[in-house]
Amino acid sequence: MELIISGYGVKTADTIKGFILKEDGTFHESWKDSVVNPSFLCQGDGYLFTVTENDDAVIYLYGREGQGYRLLDHKRIDGGALCHITYSAKNKALFGACYGTGTLFAVKVEPGHFGDILHQEIQQEGTALTRVHCVLLNRKEDRLVTVNIALDRIFIYAVNQGYLTLERIIKAPQGSGPRHALYSEDESYLYVITEYSNEILVYDLKDEDRLVQQISTLSGRFNGRSNCSTLCFSRNNAYLYAANRGAETIALFSAGSDGRLSYLEEYDCGGQHPRHMILSGDGKKLLVCNQNSHQVVCFLLDTEQGRIIGKLGSLDFTAPSGILEV
Fold this sequence. Notes:
Elements (H helix, E strand, L loop, with lengths): L1 E6 L8 E6 L5 E7 L7 E4 L2 E6 L4 E9 L2 E10 L4 E7 L4 E6 L4 E8 L2 E10 L9 E6 L5 E6 L4 E8 L2 E9 L6 E6 L5 E6 L4 E6 L5 E7 L10 E7 L5 E7 L3 E7 L5 E8 L5 E6 L5 E6 L4 E7 L6 E9 L3 E6 L1
Antiparallel strand pairs: 1-2, 1-28, 2-3, 4-5, 5-6, 6-7, 8-9, 9-10, 10-11, 12-13, 13-14, 14-15, 16-17, 17-18, 18-19, 20-21, 21-22, 22-23, 24-25, 25-26, 26-27
């Protein structure tokens, strides 16, 4: 299993590394590079993309070279605290969200380099604070969902050759702070995890984007401060995992055919501040980036019931924040 992991740090540190995860749970480093605060990663068309999450927003494009990647191009974006990106192979475009400035952008990706900026806007309602934190493509890559934590809004855009046209806006409950989103397998439901209210919001996209459920990610035993970060589905979309920073847990839900979730149980995340996590391609492992304890933890899953059944291995990594399987 080939992984790429990124974490917060200065340019003199090794902030991006490639690893081979062996069956015994050991991580073997294969390559490394460094940019400032590469908080997230994505890939497509043989390229690796990352960002600088800083007052200055920069995107980076890497190409495969041997066992690793070589930096091919970078481009500055007019925004701040760039935190999330996704690539569209169909549109040959990279989309990104800036938490600091509320900026949403799209950049053309040409062979081996970045092209023109196709779209750039600050999502705004009056003078309210704005913080975009997620860009999510549908399967056809003709719709882009973005969530805005500060505005409590979900913006849905039509995508045409990388250009964006606002289609509609979904209002989230006031003060909930929507942070990340996922589609159901058939894309009829949208699952939105909230940073402020520690919930998952379930919207029925077939029924005028109706909010059909609000369900907490925290157990009744926890009474401290916590902030959700991200969520991911099991391979068959029967189970959903949600990360709680503060409670330091991974919550497990089952997903019904009606889109609704049922809370099952929670698990210790194996560290502190689980910022990002992914499911392995084979569906048997959950990899969690525990930012504040400087560890990436690999958990084994019961693929039939979704449960975390043990820890396969862990890796020391400075402030890990992004992870993907190549």
